[in-house]
Design a protein that fits this description.
This protein has 564 residues and is an alpha/beta fold. It is built from 18 helices and 18 strands. Helix 7 packs across helix 8 and helix 10 packs parallel to helix 12. The longest helix is centred in the N-terminal third of the chain and has 50 residues. The structure holds ligand C2E and calcium ion (2 copies). Ligand C2E binds next to strand 9, helix 9, helix 10, strand 11 and strand 13.
């Protein structure tokens, strides 16, 4: 219904209501007429009967007129009364409609945020404090934003509507369901305090309901949900704060974020430590913006070694945050938050620019590998931006390797392929990182033009004592050979692992055995000791030659020379 429609309807309704008020008077008149009718009827009717039977002179004409007037008044009054009833019913319907519009989410028909708050208060008030309690769940769709961005809002809306229907079906009949905002739903229900497992079961079935693939316009779309749960009887309201719906929703939200950070597609009950976690996160968020302005992100470098010769082949740049508040932070602590905040591209480009600058001091055969977030992969201008960085650092693209994690294969594969092709056209090499942990199929490996595969640490570190890991690493090494793709093994921590890797053929390796990631200055000092800085190399006809390895004794150089 359009806005003018609504206005006209409201004006008509107001007019009718005024008429209805006037007609209460009409009903009064009709009632009085009935009383008078009974009175005059009592006097007139016997006289009429007497006259008809020939015993009397008939009623007084004035009385007859009064009786007829009464009849007319009764008919008039009754009709107005009937109209009045219709008007009142219509008014109720109009009010009901207005209330529904004010209380429900127009897209999904579930309660909206405002009415949900009131409904929770009522639900809490209805609990029998000793025996029952109210549980509140925050339900957030995990990858909805990407679907909206990639497939358009029309499809996004259809999915939200179906999500609401699936959630409603999976909930107990007396539970409340609300769409709190964008892709966030919430529900509330009372439960027996002695059986909170019933709430666990509901949460699990909501997760299952969303996990079922969505078929929209012949597209199969997979979505998961993260859920946070609170229960009214265990929550401690903040000081001087009453335990209200908003407080419960906030705590369920905190638990939901915890679920997001712990792998998504799962549910968690709120616990106090999560609130601390949340506060910590808020400090990180504030610090990240500041850190970007102040250039607090610094590249660290981890050596990459040819495991058969022991020679250094290059470095992987790993991000660190030198935070004035927290000290030196590892990427797992801040990269996911930077991704969510939309800061990752800026941070990454700052880091890459400074790494390119630093790597120019290294011997020119040494490569630089950098990690790229899936968020950056979605940016169609990424390869142009990278080219700009390469040009302004005057760094040869052939020395740069971009590491794309295997989880990106979950992304829009057409776009990933276009990006890889565009990077390779510029001469940059592209490596598939964390191989074995993600979703890439053999056919994707075959069709995506990678230059290298990197076997995930979780497999490599176990090959000396776990037969399964050894079998996986060996078959990845064979796969690489078959596809003509060189292999890097990360996470080499001891000689036993290294020895076994060597038996799998030509492999590049990295790990704590060779050295932990180091700052730019430590890395430069280490390279200087090995004579591997650019200026220290002999220049032959303008070409900077790699260091000369003395293998006249027929011995391979000591691999441990590369250890630090
Ligand atoms: P990754 O790319 O798999 O990097 C390897 C991680 O394993 C590094 O952790 C490294 O310090 C650690 N590592 C290396 N050798 C060993 C070993 O022998 N044993 C053990 N236990 N660990 C080892 P780090 O630096 O904490 O990086 C973690 C992840 O953060 C990286 O995993 C990468 O995915 C991501 N990351 C790092 N820098 C960046 C960046 O600039 N941008 C993006 N988007 N992600 C980054
Ligand atoms: Ca990596
Ligand atoms: Ca890895």
């Amino acid at each position: 219904m359009t806005a003018p429609d609504n206005k006209a309807r409201a004006a008509r309704s107001r007019g009718r209501i005024r008429t209805a008020e006037r007609d209460i008077l009409a009903l009064g008149i009709a009632a009085a007429a009935i009383i008078m009718f009974v009175g005059t009827g009592g006097a007139v009717v016997p006289k009429v009967i007497g006259a008809i039977s020939g015993y009397g002179i008939g009623p007084d004409i004035a009385l007859v007129n009064a009786l007829l007037l009464n009849v007319a008044l009764i008919i008039f009054g009754w009709r107005r009364y009937d109209e009045l009833r219709t008007e009142v019913a219509e008014r109720r319907r109009a009010e009901e409609h207005a209330r529904m519009l004010a209380e429900t989410d127009p897209l999904t028909g579930t309660l909206n945020r405002r009415s949900f708050g009131f409904a929770i208060d009522e639900l809490v008030a209805a609990t029998d404090k000793g025996a029952s309690s109210t549980a509140i769940m925050m339900i957030d769709l995990d990858n909805f934003k990407q679907i909206n961005d990639r497939r358009g809002h029309g499809i996004g809306d259809l999915i939200l509507v179906e999500c609401a229907e699936r959630l409603a079906r999976a909930l107990p009949a007396d539970a409340l369901l609300s769409r709190i905002g964008g892709d966030e739903f919430a529900c509330a229900m009372n439960f027996d305090r002695t059986g909170p497992e019933s709430i666990d079961r509901v949460a699990a079935s909501l997760i299952d309901a969303i996990r079922e693939p969505f078929m929209v316009q012949d597209l199969r779309i997979d979505i998961t949900a993260s859920i946070g749960i609170t229960r009214a009887d265990v929550l401690k309201p903040a000081k001087n704060d009453k335990l209200d719906a908003q407080h419960m929703l906030d705590m369920a939200d905190v638990a939901m974020y915890h679920a997001k950070r712990n792998g998504r597609n799962s549910y968690f009950w709120f616990e106090d430590f999560m609130a601390d976690e949340m506060r910590f996160r808020e400090r990180i968020e504030a610090g990240l913006r500041q850190g970007l302005e102040n250039g607090e992100f610094v590249p660290y470098y981890e050596r990459q070694i040819d495991v058969s010769t022991g020679e250094v082949t290059g470095f992987e740049m790993l991000a660190r945050w030198q935070s004035p508040e927290f000290g030196l932070l590892l990427p797992d602590m801040f990269i996911p938050i930077a991704e969510e905040m939309g800061l990752i591209s800026d941070i990454s480009e700052q880091l890459i620019a400074s790494a390119l600058d630093e790597a120019r001091h290294w011997a020119p055969h040494l490569t630089l590998a950098v990690n790229i977030s899936p968020v950056q992969l979605r940016d169609q201008w990424f390869s142009q931006r990278l080219l700009k960085l390469l040009v302004s650092a005057n760094f040869p693209p052939g020395r740069l390797e971009i590491e794309i994690t295997e989880s990106c294969m979950h992304e829009d594969i057409v776009q990933v392929r276009a990006l890889i092709a565009s990077l390779r056209n510029q001469g940059v090499r592209v490596c598939l990182d964390d191989f074995g942990t993600g979703y890439s199929s053999l056919s994707q490996l075959h069709t995506l033009p990678f230059d290298r595969i990197k076997i995930d640490r979780s497999f490599v570190s176990g090959i000396d004592h776990c037969q399964d890991s050894a079998a996986i690493v060996e078959s990845i090494a064979m796969l690489g050979k078959g596809l003509g793709l060189p292999i890097t093994a990360e996470g080499i921590e001891n000689d036993a692992v290294l020895d076994q890797l060597r038996s799998f053929g030509e492999i590049r390796g990295q790990g704590y055995l060779y050295g932990k990631p180091r700052s730019a200055s430590e890395t430069r000092a280490w390279l200087a000791d090995l004579g591997l800085l650019a200026s220290e190399e002999k220049s032959v006809g303008g070409i900077i030659a790699p260091p000369v390895v003395d293998d006249t004794k027929g011995e391979k150089p000591d691999p441990m020379a590369a250890r630090g």
